[in-house]
Amino acid sequence: KTNTIILNSTSRFPSTSKMIKGTVALAMFASRASAFAPVTSRWAKLSSLAATPNAGSVDVGASIPDVIFKTRTRIESDDQNPFDWKDVSTDDIFAGKRIALFALPGAFTPTCSSTHLPGWEGAYEEMTTSLGIDEVYCLSVNDAFVMRRWGLDQGLEEDKTIGANGFKKVKLLPDGAVAFTRGMDMACTWDTERGFGERSWRYSMVVKDKIIEKMFVEGPRFQNSGPDPFEVSDASTMLDYLKSVA
């Protein structure tokens, strides 16, 4: 007797149509999975910023970057906003002068408003009358409108003479396009940490005829840093230095 084995292809093997459907489903899954790869890669890159220190910065003896600051100068007008645009160059501010400058992350932020700017405003007279400083500037990556409003909010006395470019004591310098800050290698990005975007790290310096005489840089300096150190860029530290070389 011959045994005949009949294979039921319908029950044991998928039909051609089912195989095609399965192949299409796998292809769609692979396509969707690959779409998430750039996102995963981007977040991995952002996370790594928190552990990436800046490579370095412009230091003592170096020239400061040549940039143009977009400022607002007072004009003769009855308008509520009696100002017009004025380009101010690095030479206009630093050439042939001994300047003290301090930089901070942002106008209206807590430490900058409660301690950093007020300390320098309080030390302005001593620095400029007996310690050889021609002018004091506060730099931040904000536009001219924000810087003026912050100065008024801080109670700084505004210089209302025609042609004036800010306040009577500490001058607020807008670096809205980050040009000077990048040139100093002091740009830091606080994106995932605070949503700030690109700002300036805290530091202070004395610049004599466009050459850096002395610098105080807060540390450790990290991109997307959680801590916001404020130990050496304060006015007291600068006063101690200026007195030591007076």
UniProtKB/TrEMBL annotation:
Organism annotation: Octactis speculum
Thioredoxin domain mapped to chain residues: 58-246
Protein name: Thioredoxin domain-containing protein
Active site residues of this protein: 112 (cysteine sulfenic acid (-soh) intermediate)
SUPFAM superfamilies to which the protein is assigned, alphabetical: Thioredoxin-like (SSF52833)
Cellular component terms per the entry's GO annotation: cytoplasm
Alphabetical UniProt keywords: Antioxidant, Oxidoreductase, Peroxidase, Redox-active center
UniProt-recorded Gene Ontology molecular function terms: thioredoxin peroxidase activity
One GO-annotated biological process of the protein: cellular response to oxidative stress
Keyword Protein biosynthesis appears in the UniProt entry: no
